[in-house]
Design brief:
Chain C: One of its GO terms (biological process) is peptide transport. Chain C: It is a peripheral membrane protein. Chain C: Keywords: ATP-binding, Nucleotide-binding, Transport. The complex is a heterotrimer of chains A (338), B (314) and C (331). Chain A has 338 residues and is α/β, with parallel strands linked by helices. Chain A is 36% helix and 22% strand. Chain A has two domains: 178 residues, P-loop containing nucleotide triphosphate hydrolases (Rossmann fold), CATH 3.40.50; 90 residues, no CATH class. In chain A, the strands form two sheets. An eight-stranded mixed sheet of chain A has the order 6-7-8-3-9-10-12-11, sandwiched between helices. A four-stranded antiparallel sheet of chain A has the order 2-1-4-5, with helices on one face. The termini of chain A are far apart. Chain B is globular, with a radius of gyration of 24 Å. Chain B is mostly helical and 314 residues long. With 331 residues, chain C is α/β, with parallel strands linked by helices. An eight-stranded mixed sheet of chain C has the order 6-7-8-3-9-10-12-11, sandwiched between helices. Chain C starts with a strand and ends with a helix. The chains are: A alpha/beta (338), B mainly alpha (314), C alpha/beta (331). Chains in contact: A-B, A-C, B-C. At the A-C interface, α7, α8, α9, α10 and α11 of A face α6, α7, α8 and α10 of C.
Amino acid sequence: MSEHPLLSVRDLKVDFPTRRGTLKAIDGISFDIARGEILGVVGESGAGKSLTGSAIIGLLEPPGRISGGEVRLKGDRIDNLPAKAMRHIRGKRIGMIFQDPLTSLNPLFTIGEQIVETIMAHLPVSEREARERAVHLLDEVGIPAASQRLGAYPHQFSGGMRQRVVIALALCAEPELVIADEPTTALDVSVQAQIIRLLKRICRDHGASVMLITHDMGVIAETCDRVAVMYSGRIAEIGPVADVVRAPRHPYTIGLMGAIPTLDATEDRLTQIPGSMPRLDAIPSGCAFNPRCAHVFARCRQERPEPIDVGSSKVACWLAEEDGSRTIVDKKKADQLS
Amino acid sequence: MTEMASPRTAATSRIARLLDSDILHSFLRSKVTIAAAFLTLLFFAGAIFAPIVAPHDPFDLAGISILDARLPPAWMEGGDARFLLGTDDQGRDVFSAILYGSRISLAVGFMSVILAATVGILLGLTAGYMGGRIDAFIMRIAEVQLTFPAILIALLIDGAARGIFGNLDREKYVFWILVFSISLSLWVQFARTVRGSTLVERGKEYVQAARLIGIPPFLIMIRHVLPNVLGPALVIATINLALAIITEATLSFLGVGVPPTQPSLGTLIRIGNDFLFSGEWWIAIFPGAALALLVLAVNLLGDWLRDALNPKLR
Amino acid sequence: MPPVVEVSNLSRTFDVSKPWLNRVLERAPKAYLKAAQDISFSIGKGETFALVGESGSGKSTVAKMVVGLLAASEGEIRIDGVDMRKSRNTAAMRGLRRRIQMIFQDPYASLNPRWRVDRIIAEPIRAFGLERGEQAISARVGELLELVRLNPRDGAKYPHEFSGGQRQRICIARALASRPEFIVCDEPTSALDVSVQAQILNLMRDLQDEFGLTYLFISHDLAVVRHMAARIGVMYLGRLVEVAKAGELFGNPQHPYTRMLLEAIPDLNMTGRPRKAVEGEIPNPINPPPGCSFHPRCPLANERCRIERPAFLTRQPATGVACHAVEEGRA
């Protein structure tokens, strides 16, 4: 058992059949999440990062469907489980945090009722124990006077406090994995930092792994151990967060890092990647990034690159294959090139 | 840099866009909708071309004979091949009467909806865009209007019209009295829906952009907001067409509608009602079935249109 | 050089009371939201002045008042010395309107979905009668599309055929159509992806250089503001708490709230610099705390901060801070 990673995704594909043809929203992605690890999944809108999360927890919106590959939780396949078995895994073994706290909380029940109900649904405890546990959890996520707030309804909390409640709810059955989809996007800057810190601390305390889906590279850099950069439903680059952030190797990641305005930057112009991500019905052949890539050559237009090992990362780029050393470009060099 | 604006879709002609549109596709996918549309078209064609299609002219006194009165449908014993669905008490062909009756029913329905939609959309647009006291004033009137049932209003107006024009002249105006009273009860729904959509659109930034360059409110309402709130109004118009036809039939059935000399479907049912228990069931049942089919078909079309125009339900 | 835009003591109050009947039955008093209070700043020609703040800070309210979409409750706005409020008469107002434009936040809501792009861009040209004849108008529209790096043929398409970044370019083309001098940019890139945001920000800078535009830049993103603005005003609960040159603000922030905002930004360079934890949330703006509205979250707050509202201390021309702790040298 123990040789299995906590979560293992292999060649996962998600299709959306439409009358104009099948859209490949996720096209063969593979990654692992180790026990206690925080994996960031970053990408721009339409890259398929949220769909990856939904596919893993079996909540794809129809007509979307998993059309290939497999998802294993501690070695057991979970992508082909019946709906009932999957419902048990969600909440018990995989906790979920969404962007809008109000989608996770029922406005008609007090937060105490919701947390106690979730605990009792998944753990063999009495109602009293469940209540104690709920108070303890709320205290842990920084809700002041937790025992008195059990009877409060979601709308009586501020946005940041609500997201804290959702984190408590996601962790109340001691899940092994927490999937957090843009957990801070709807919050104010000063609250975002608090929630990110809380999420990181509490998952470490509870020994839960985290899959953190976000468009914000800053959040990834602060929080994650490893990061997967997605583009057009594929993983462009995956590796230790320090490597990807400081020395990105895929031309897309290089461009993305250069495009982020930073506080100490004084240069007049930001690095810009021309164009925008292709629509799902017009993904170019070969490497999906090739029309926007400054280093494109013939092979990129014909063959799709598979992720290959470069240092401690995996990079899906023909440049990495051609000459592993050539792609190790720093940001400055990338600026000159583009 | 110019190539960045990739010609993702070349500007296509309107026809090509329609053929490729989701609306057409969703129409072709639903068999019920196709059947409903076919039925509606059949009624429209029958109504418009009634003088050509109908085997008899039920209003031509020279063409009808009292001797042919109360004949059962053609396939029954004692039926006459000339009168497919039988005849009424005055010897008029029921099938022809239905065609001519649909004509009046549909005309009243269409005119009522057009009048109600025009008034309702303009008032809703004004209320939603201007807000404040104008909004409060228009919507209070709409609420008061809602407390009176359509039939009651029609009876009141009819009574008033009788008082003013007298019973004889009434026949000349009865069509417009019906249209007026039915649309009076229908405009509120248009106004409310359009006001709601207008409130949403007014808050959008394209309206602010137009305000910014000093486009006057009236032009913003007509040019910018109106085209974007017509979708929901179209759905209501379709469903209200069915409602208007039913209301007209009800009024005619109660005797405040069109006179028996120019019968609508409702009038036909009323005439037939007197003979329902004396065995001549066809005089009431066939116009009744026609009315039910027409209203059902139009309602199904309206339901489909609502779903097709609402991307969330697709 | 006199400033192009001068805003002094600008305030806006919204009546957020419940309907009359509810107030009578529930004995609730009237409720007012002071969205912006006592805002003063000026922008020089060709300068970019930024207003940053979190939700409820009133930055968008200020933007709307400056362009004239929202009437100010108090205070005045002068554009080139002309008082916006007093020049309600048509001729002066029309001239002023042409010179002020706005770029909006949501590129999906800021273009009329039923209009073709060329008609959208031509609307300001027609409204101000800037070109004569259809041919001249369409030539100008093509020129504007090229200016924002789009293809002139794109004018025949509808907005839904474009991506978010391309739509924002169309919005910029529309804003430029009246040949404005001053553009208010209300979170122009917050709905866009990072790589597209870089394109738009670069484009806005290029256009500023080309036409000598003056920008009022509204954003919640300090890094974007750092990149775009020469001077920055920080807003909290409807008030300006600090105005400083960009370098000063990031190198030597004065107000405790500015410092907190800077602490909250994720560290992309992973330098591992020690950071103070940010605490608390923004209070309800309908019932702001008395005294300095930041005092419940402020590590430097004392009795005076809880009672007395700090005045805005002007330091050098056009910068300043509103904080007792800074004034008393406790900061």
